[in-house]
Design a protein that fits this description.
Blueprint lengths: L3 E6 L5 H10 L3 E7 L14 E2 L2 H6 L4 E4 L6 H10 L3 E5 L6 H13 L4 E4 L6 H11 L6 E9 L11 H17 L3 E9 L9 E8 L4 E7 L6 E8 L2 E6 L4 E7 L7 H7 L3 E6 L7 H13 L7 E2 H17 L5
Parallel strand pairs: 1-2, 1-4, 2-3, 4-5, 5-6, 7-10
Antiparallel strand pairs: 6-15, 7-11, 8-9, 9-10, 11-12, 12-13, 13-14
Helix pairs in contact: 3-4, 4-9, 6-9
């Protein structure tokens, strides 16, 4: 197996993890890193910290991971495409849809592998849930809800909670539903004194009739990462912070105790928390990228999917009265 020469641009909070996992991915070698701001976490090791994407290209890489702030995604990605270098771009694909389309077009025109880093799709709880949904365990799917709440992360400076956090929920919901958003409504608030929104509640309906709801904020004094799918046969709850998946089955046995039936509900059945392997999601993301580069079966998120997610994100912002 030929070793892939990988570059990394952006050595911040996410870049440090990308550097670690590139080095751990079989058949991949981290040969060059770049960041005009230096190496605050000391992840370069023996590698020189290059100043920009042009220097990264000149290092002779086969592919690159783009972990710079969102506003710089387009410039960096287009430079890589022009140089014939495959890329995985951190989510969201770009700062707006027009830029995302330009990136996707450039990689397709050059015949390059281009993916977007939606790491939640690589979480074992979500992967297991989607597999069981596809097998019909829930029957018809009625509703998908997500809750993604936590304190404000100081690493975020250039976007609000919608493009940074809610983008995960928009992407994984469309993936789980195997559909697109037919309608979306939203409300946001600004409570932390920043330019960008820090709370959003969005609801809508998928093209296949599934209703959805997303609660996302940076103001909770706890961390919550939960996706709930309700169907005709029961419900799944995936906790992507812990990687746990729990199944709540609808009852197949009637409750004879009338008062308890009224309290519990007529459809409460067995509850099962599944046991399965839980690899680090970002490691799975890198494995998918490497497989895509080799032309092997993979679950990498395409740039076109990234553009569709960004289109929905912009619809959320527009529905909340925020111009992009």
């Amino acid at each position: 197996m030929t070793t892939l020469k990988m570059g990394l641009i952006g050595l911040g909070a996410m870049g440090r993890h990308h550097a670690r996992l590139i080095r751990q991915t079989e058949g991949v070698e981290l040969v060059a890193v770049a960041d005009p701001g230096g190496d605050p976490f000391g992840v370069a090791g023996e590698l020189a910290v290059l100043p920009n994407v042009q220097a990264l290209v000149e290092a002779g890489i086969d592919a690159a991971v783009v972990a710079v702030p969102t506003i710089f995604h387009e410039d960096v990605a287009l430079a890589l495409a022009a140089a014939g270098i495959h890329a995985m771009v951190e989510k969201p694909i770009a700062h707006d849809v027009a830029a995302g389309i330009r990136i996707a077009d450039a990689f397709e025109a050059a015949g390059l592998v281009g993916t977007v880093g939606y790491v939640e799709r690589c979480n074992a709880a979500i992967v297991q849930m989607r597999r069981r949904m596809a097998a019909g365990q829930l029957g018809e799917i009625y509703q998908i809800t997500t809750s993604r709440q936590s304190p404000f992360p100081v690493r975020i400076a250039d976007v609000g909670v919608v493009k940074d956090l809610a983008t995960h929920d928009i992407d994984l919901t469309a993936w789980l539903a195997d559909s697109t958003y037919a309608s979306i409504h939203a409300e946001v608030t600004h409570r932390a004194g920043r330019q960008h929104e820090d709370m959003v509640v969005a609801s809508g309906k998928m093209a296949n009739g599934i209703v959805v709801n997303h609660t996302v904020n940076w103001l909770a004094p706890f961390k919550e990462r939960r996706t709930t799918v309700i169907g005709e046969k029961g419900a799944f709850i995936a906790d992507t912070a812990t990687g746990d998946l729990t199944y709540y089955a609808n009852a197949s046995v009637d409750t004879e105790w009338e008062e308890m039936a009224a309290f519990r509900g007529p459809s409460e059945g067995d509850v099962t928390r599944y046991a399965f392997a839980k690899p680090e999601p970002l490691a799975v993301e890198h494995l998918n990228f490497a497989r895509a580069l080799r032309g092997e079966p993979n679950s990498a998120v395409s740039m076109r999917e990234g553009v569709r997610t960004l289109e929905t994100i912009e619809r959320v912002l527009a529905a909340a009265g925020i111009s992009n």
